Amino acid sequence: MPHRSVLVYDGDCAFCTTSVNFIMRRLRPNCTVTPWKFADLDALGVTQQRAERELLYISPPGTVYGGAQAVAKLMLSAGGLWAWPGALLTLPPARWIAHAVYRLIAANRDRLPGGSPACASPADRRPGYGLPDKDADQHQPGQ
Fold first, then answer.
1. Dist. CA 139–CA 113, nearest whole Å
2. 68-78 and 94-107 helices cross at what angle (nearest 10)?
3. What span, in angstroms and rounded, lies between the C-alpha atoms of 19 and 113?
4. Residue 76 and residue 70: Cα distance in Å, rounded?
5. pLDDT band at residue 112 using 50, 70 and 90 as cut-offs
6. Entry pTM
7. What Cα–Cα distance (Å) separates residue 53 from each residue in 6, 109, 120, 143?
8. For the ranges 1-5, 75-79, 103-107, 136-140, which has the lowest average pLDDT?
């Protein structure tokens, strides 16, 4: 269980990395941010398959929020004006709409600005999968 909330994202996907960097600059959420391949997924209570599929927000008690609800929790953790839309995203029908929009974006992230063909591939089929990452020590966005 983490002592602080953790945001886990797909660091190999250019669209995801760009989005997380934007979030960190603008929202300044109160959490640790890490790509899934540098996270101790077992300790966080999530599978690699789930981490590849969606953004994850893990709270200190170990509750895992994925996709649009991870975004909502991130906004809530940022506080201030960001907490209002974050709270809204946790309530129906906004929650249902956010889920559908998140799935649409996730399914097409390779076609969106900042995306690349690697964003569409499952992690084990991406170029360089399994090779040591030359930037392994620089995995925090915004640094």
1. 21
2. 110
3. 10
4. 10
5. confident
6. 0.80
7. 16, 11, 10, 25
8. 136-140
* Helix, strand or coil, per DSSP, at residue 108: coil
Tell me the two tokens of residue 6: 């953790």
Contact between residue 139 and residue 35 where contact means Cβ atoms under 8 Å apart: yes
Q: Can you tell me the distance from the alpha carbon of 135 to that of 107, in angstroms, rounded to the nearest whole number?
A: 27
Query: For 8-38, what is each residue's pLDDT tens digit?
Result: 999 888 888 988 999 899 998 889 999 999 9
Q: Using an 8 Å Cβ cutoff, are 98 and 68 in contact?
A: yes
First to last CA, the chain: 25
d(CA 79, CA 28): 9
Report how far residue 44's alpha carbon sits from residue 129's, in angstroms, rounded to the nearest whole number.
22
Q: Tally the residues of the chain.
A: 143
Q: Calculate the CA dihedral of residues 5, 42, 9, 59 and round it to 10 degrees.
A: -20
